[in-house]
Specification:
The protein is mainly α. It starts with a helix and ends with a helix. Helix content is about 60%, strand content about 0%.
């Protein structure tokens, strides 16, 4: 890639191989930069989503607003709005719009945790 593009185009902006989450090597590559705490957070968010599905029949992540999801990702990734698509691509999510769609599943858990943290701070 560097020879063809003069080093200006990173490979993740050209190639987006399909991911098989059943393949341990693919999963290891995806999670390489994630901490143990990151992985625990994702598990908590998945559990929160399951609770919401049980307690609110008919709930769909389609109801989660794109703008809110984008704001959360910008905060979590600590990147400027102008770099959102590039950051999503570098993380294997192709583009910002796809990142937003994929991240909607973690928003309910993220918001639940954020709310609990705020309540704990106000209780002190």
């Amino acid at each position: 890639m560097a020879q063809l593009t003069g080093g200006d185009v990173p490979a993740h902006q050209v190639f987006h191989p399909p991911l098989d989450l059943r393949d341990e090597a693919s999963v290891a590559l995806l999670l390489d930069g994630e901490s143990g705490e990151d992985r625990k957070a994702v598990a908590r968010y998945a559990a929160a989503l399951a609770r919401i599905h049980r307690s609110r029949p008919g709930f769909s992540t389609d109801a989660v607003r794109d703008h809110l999801t984008r704001q959360i990702l910008l905060r979590v990734w600590q990147c400027p709005r102008a770099d959102f698509d590039a950051e999503a691509s570098a993380r294997g999510l192709v583009c910002g719009a796809r990142a937003v769609e994929e991240a909607k599943r973690i928003v309910p858990g993220f918001l639940e945790e954020s709310s609990e943290r705020m309540e704990a701070r106000h209780a002190c």
